[in-house]
Amino acid sequence: MWNLFKNKKKQAIGSPVQGRLIDLSSVKDEAFASKAMGDGFAIEPSSDIFVSPIDGTIAAVFPTGHAFGITNDDMEIIVHIGIDTVELQGNGFHSYVNQGDQVKKGDPVVKADIASIKAKGYDVTTMVIFTDGKQPVVEKLNELVKEGEDVASIA
């Protein structure tokens, strides 16, 4: 009962990839931009290595390698690499993890051949979506960030 009055620890969320952090509403996909799938943020990647933004358990690895989900006691997120990249059927993606694996923030999860994916005409903007209804406070909008660098938090 008295836990009601305790301050919950703020949980930091890292960037899954090096690049420019952008507002989710500016993503060129209405399902993400409208937050229909959940709130979050996006990154325009400048690197091929995607890391876990939090400590947790890999809850899902899409067979195509373009997306993965992570959960822990505080949140549930999906990292979605690119727009419509599911159409590539896994070409250009290599996953380092399996469902059920434990990861630490900053651990490599996926390698994506960003140059190849762009050359095929796909937008590589990467979304980090909170599928549990959490609303992150994004702290470094329009800044260049490194993979694993804290860029948002939830209370």
From TrEMBL:
Keywords carried by this UniProt record: Kinase, Phosphotransferase system, Sugar transport, Transferase, Transport
Tree of life domain: Bacteria
Pfam family for this entry, one: PTS_EIIA_1
BP term (GO), one: phosphoenolpyruvate-dependent sugar phosphotransferase system
A Gene Ontology cellular-component term: cytoplasm
Domain PTS EIIA type-1 stretches: 29-132
Subcellular location: Cytoplasm
Gene Ontology MF term list: kinase activity
Keyword 4Fe-4S appears in the UniProt entry: no
Classification via PANTHER family: PTS SYSTEM GLUCOSE-SPECIFIC EIIA COMPONENT
Protein name per Swiss-Prot or TrEMBL: PTS glucose transporter subunit IIA
